[in-house]
Amino acid sequence: MLPTTGTELLKLPPVKAGLLPRGLILREVGGQMQPIWHHYYDEAAAVLFVVDAAQTSSLADAAMLLFDLLQDQHLQGKPLCVLLNKRDRPGALSQSQLDGALRLHDLRLSHPGRLQVLVASGLYGQGLPDIMKWLAAAAAAADAASLKHR
């Protein structure tokens, strides 16, 4: 799978008997588009931050971006999931190595209940059910918050 180089919009249809009773709209904004990410923060209900576990040279940058996302005032209170992708690739770091490189333990402690970490393989579909459950829960939380503020 190739990294996203621009932005893409994906609409997931409703699944009446499943996890997505109203469907979802996902906006994928590639890492190269990081200078414009902030334009999407207000409309986001949640953030799915994808880290390529096989691209070890970019982990320091990913750690700094993740820290910045968690500190941004426009994303406060919004759930954030770190998705460790491509764990199946040769040379990919283990989950404990990724936890250390991204300081995930420290971030979980400083943002209790807000930060979720999932492991995935886009090639094999590993982790997809967990990702869908997280997206559905994030959408439900956003709906509940929206109703509360009316």
Overview of the structural elements:
- The chain is built from four helices and five strands, in the order E-E-E-H-E-H-H-E-H.
- With 150 residues, it is of the alpha/beta class.
- The protein has a domain at 48-144: Rossmann fold.
- Strands 3-4-5 form a three-stranded parallel β-sheet, with helices on both faces.
- The longest helix is centred in the last third of the chain and has 21 residues, at 128-148.
- The termini are far apart.
Secondary structure blueprint with pairings:
Elements: E1 7-12, E2 24-29, E3 47-52, H1 59-71, E4 80-85, H2 95-102, H3 104-110, E5 115-119, H4 128-148
Parallel strand pairs: 3-4, 4-5
Antiparallel strand pairs: 1-2
Intertermini distance: 41 Å
Query: Overall mean pLDDT score?
Result: 85
Going by CATH, the architecture of the domain at 48-144 would be 3-Layer(aba) Sandwich
Q: How do the strands of the widest beta sheet line up side by side?
A: 3-4-5
Number of helices: 4
The major β-sheet equals:
3 strands, parallel
What is the name of the CATH class of the domain at 48-144?
Alpha Beta
Helix and strand content put the structural class at: alpha/beta
Low-confidence stretches: none
Q: In the CATH hierarchy, what is the superfamily of the domain at 48-144?
A: P-loop containing nucleotide triphosphate hydrolases
- Specify the overall morphology: globular
- Using only C-alpha atoms, the radius of gyration works out to 15 Å
Tell how many strands the DSSP assignment holds.
Answer: 5
Report the order of strands and helices.
EEEHEHHEH
CATH topology of the domain at 48-144: Rossmann fold
Proportion of residues in extended strands: 15-25%
Helix coverage percent: 25-40%
